[in-house]
Amino acid sequence: MLSTILWAGKGVSLTSFFSVMYFTMFLPACIVLFALTPKKAKKYFVIFVSYMFFWFISGLLLAYLILSTVSMYFFGLWLSKVKDKLKQESAGLEKEERKALKEKYNNKERGIVILSVVLHIGGLLVLKYAGFFSDNVNLLLNKFGIAGSIKAPQFMLPIGISFFSLQALSYILDVHYGKIKADRNIGRLALFICFFPQIVEGPICRYDQTANQLWEIKQITYENLTFGIQRLLYGMLKKIVVADRLNTFVDHIFSNYSSFHGGVIAFAAVAYTIQLYMDFSGSMDAVIGTAQIFGIQMPENFKHPFFSRTISEFWTRWHISLGTWFKDYIFYPITSAKKIKKLTSSARKKIGNHYGPLLAGSIALFAVWACNGLWHGAAWNFIFFGMYHFVLILIGSLINPLVRKTNSKLKINPDAKWYRAVQIFRTCVLVVIGELFFRAYGLKNGLHMFKRMVTNFSFLLIDETTMKTIGVDAKDFIIVGMVVIIVLCVSILSEKGVSVRRKLADTNIVVRWIVLYALILCIVVFGAYGYGYVVVDPLYAQY
Amino acid sequence: MEKLIEILEDINPDVDYATCETLIDDHHLNSLAIISLIAELEEEYDITIPAIEIVPDNFNSAERIMKMITRLQEE
């Protein structure tokens, strides 16, 4: 087995943070060896184990990660050189001359940035979407009676490429915007992009969030170790007890939806939404907890999204690092472009201060949601998922003035508890519908499932015998329900500003250890292992 | 400052701009409201707000927005 791992790097055993191999061997070995490594060598040790981790999963595809690091290093230095030259040449010039020179150098920088985007995103497009585009071109050609036979080569995808490509690009763009200075230390850049807890599913960190923290990595402390382990276990509880337990049921209904009535499909869509949240946010707890063990503070990627009052707010609480990436590098650059600003300005005069900017905003919003849909995968249902949210956010913004007026006329307080509850419920329903299309096997099936949900709503055709065939029973749903209630309580407290972990740290040591053991026991006893369950890789690792 | 608060109230009247310091963090101003605000500010104060300036730090309170405006006017 060792030779397989070392030479082929096929990741047979080390598939994710939740694999037995990772928990029993890789992570404990990393912690112990890190603690024993001399202070000055700790950062190099983390680079080494991060590359090992990547190698275990993706083997020789590690080359992509190394190439990305080298590319961001050189592009950063190139941009820095152009900036320095501008500084030198503009010294002593008049304001107008300085402006003209700045424009000239800005164009140069833009050229460099475009080249870097082509390399990083172009590479991602070829690897991830070549098959999708060739299939659709062939389909289109066939419709016109031309025999389309474009065959795209099948590429192996390195783990986390959609995450580290965006992270690399954010570094280059931040250097271009002057937000950060180009790093002359390739080791720091390598560590920033390869840090093993974040490589599979993010969060997509910014250079100014983690690069220096990682390069100055310190000895493990008792508080970081215990806090980190607690967060890790909480993530495992969400992932192994809830997400993996729901997987069997969700997969069966989505694969055989035509055998079930609409009520069951709706229930499966809710179950999938819970599964996805518990899987992804649980993985993020594992990432943030692991990083915390090493004293690294990662940005949060979730902020209780199911308390959102609007879809727009939902996306500022779910997969935050992806949302802010699109906002900072697609949405605002588009709306800040001269032509779009001109459009905003003239539209404001013609159609008012609300709808005018909305026109320009909708162009940028469209770009963001097209990219968001495609980022998740090369399939029409992902594109539909993106467009669905684009339309919902747009409608929300369009009717906003009308809603405000109506509320004011009817004397409805928008901060009243019942009004917030209705808004939250509405957002949850819309999110579940979106996730139905996201999970469906293709857009056609998604539409069929939705139609069945609306036109044939009943819970018939599901009884105890069917549940047995699927491989789940009432016990599964009771366990899932109990953990969901625990997570909900923790989320409500956190939403109110109460840190459960801090509260726990302030309690008696006996209580602390009882809670910790209860958590471990709960994962071991109620985790979805054994006969009937398959090990489920983190869902977002495939994107 | 009065003019700025007037502009902000026109975009979202449900906020106390004199005291609120979490306009972005608490979702009082979403991305589309920001575009509207930027268009208004650029016209009113004769400034250009580049994409790099659109960060929560510059938009979380009326005071911070005013600081950014003053800085951009001086540049």
Descriptive report:
The complex is a heterodimer of chains A (543) and B (75). Chain A is mainly α. Chain A has 3 domains: 2-219, no CATH class; 220-302 and 440-543, no CATH class; 312-438, no CATH class. Helices cover 74% and strands 0% of the residues of chain A. Chain A is built from 21 helices and no strands. Chain A has helices at residues 2-8, 20-36, 42-58, 62-90, 95-143, 161-177, 186-194, 196-199, 207-215, 222-255, 262-293, 311-314, 320-335, 338-376, 380-409, 417-439, 443-455, 464-470, 474-495, 500-505, 509-526. Chain A is globular, with a radius of gyration of 25 Å. The two termini of chain A are 28 Å apart. Chain B has 75 residues and is an all-alpha fold. Chain B has a single domain (2-74), classed as ACP-like (Non-ribosomal Peptide Synthetase Peptidyl Carrier Protein, Chain A, Orthogonal Bundle). Helix content of chain B is 56%, strand content 0%. The radius of gyration of chain B is 11 Å and the shape is globular. Chain B starts with a helix and ends with a helix. The chains are: A mainly alpha (543), B mainly alpha (75). Chains A and B meet through helix 13 and helix 14 of A and helix 2 of B.
In summary, what is this structure?
The complex is a heterodimer of chains A (543) and B (75). Chain A is mainly α.
